[in-house]
Every structure is written in C-alpha cells, then in structure tokens.
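CORE FACILITY INTAKE
Project code: CF-77B
Contact: R.S. (postdoc)
Sample description: multi-component assembly, two entities in total
Requested service: structural model of the whole complex
Turnaround: standard
Below are the sequence entries exactly as provided by the requester. Do not edit them.
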Amino acid sequence: GQNIDQPTEMTATEGAIVQINCTYQTSGFNGLFWYQQHAGEAPTFLSYNVLDGLEEKGRFSSFLSRSKGYSYLLLKELQMKDSASYLCAVMDSNYQLIWGAGTKLIIKP
Amino acid sequence: GAVVSQHPSWVICKSGTSVKIECRSLDFQATTMFWYRQFPKQSLMLMATSNEGSKATYEQGVEKDKFLINHASLTLSTLTVTSAHPEDSSFYICSAKSPLAGDTDTQYFGPGTRLTVL
C-alpha cells in the first residue's frame, strides 16, 4: 500500500530551528509537496521537490532523497505565526496526491 | 497569481436540504479541480477530481449521487451536497492546478467552506 509518515506533533521555541521529517512509500514518484495549514483554514503551498537535494525559500527549506524515500521541511528563525500543521504529500505514478496526516507544530515563546 | 476562491465560507443548513459550494480560479484557467473534505484534526481526504466539460471522477467510497460535481467552465466547479445529514458536516476544500510554466502539478487551494448540518 501507499504510506506517508510524519510525526504527529512537534514543539519548538521562537527563534529556533525545527526539522519536520516525512518518509514515504508510494507506487511511483512524481514529486513531493509541503503545505502549511493553520487551524480552520485551507492549506497553502510551501514547496515542491522532484529532484534530490535542498530547495531554499527564505526561512523555509525542503530536502528530498528519493533513494531513501525521505524528505524534511526545515524552518529557521521560528515565529509564533509558524504554529500550524505541516502536510507532506507525494504525487504517485498516476499523478495522484497521497497525503500524510500532518505534523502539528507548536511554537513556544 | 494562482488564486482560488470558494463561496460560501461557511453554511448552516437543516437536515434534508441541499447545499451548493462554488470554487473559482480567479486569475487562471483550471482544466482540473479537486474537491476535498477534512474532518477535525484529520488530514485532507480527496473526494473527487473534476475535469472541465466531463464527468467527475469520484474516489472509492464517495457517493456520486450525494455529492454532485459540475465543472461547467474553466474557472468554475461546483459541489452540491444533496439531502445533507449531520454526518456531512465537515470542512470542504477545493483546489485547482495552475497551468503556469513549470508548475503544472502544484495544487492551489481555496479557503474552504465549513458546512454544518443541523
């Protein structure tokens, strides 16, 4: 079967760095997405990786290793507004998005 | 660019009535739109894929006669929840693929519609 694993919840301190991991087992691979979702709101797109390596976008970076079926989202200089759920999603060989359950990130002052 | 809107933002209805939710791509044409539902503290669940000018493709377990999807134009898809019941209360979110150069697979989400059925 297809499976996306990410931690249920993480806690970090304002100003610090946090890494949210995502491992996947899917039938085929056509890219991995990270979305941010604040409580009660729809997801917003953060990043897309299809090749191995690190993609940096401001305070957020996303890394992919296809051979390991592994990705992480790195958030630097954490702000209180970064408190949200972070969803990992993989596009399989049929171009269907397989969603992880999301990681709830709690930022403490 | 790639802005998706939904209307209404929230709706409360009586059991047995039907509710229509609109999803619009505001600054691009979307040949494919997706409808999701999300229960509290759970991840997104894809309900159906909506292609302009053709019938929607429903995921297993989603009743096509209960959740009517119409994608009549390149900028509008509608989801109608027919004969709604309290168990249909959920957060319904649409998304669309933006055909911007080099970005054909990213889905952009509407703000969502919170449906409460009494």
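Facility notes:
- Chain A touches chain B at residues 30-31, 33, 35, 40-45, 48, 87, 91, 95-97, 99-102 (CB under 8 Å).
- Chain A has a mean pLDDT of 93.
Invoice: internal transfer
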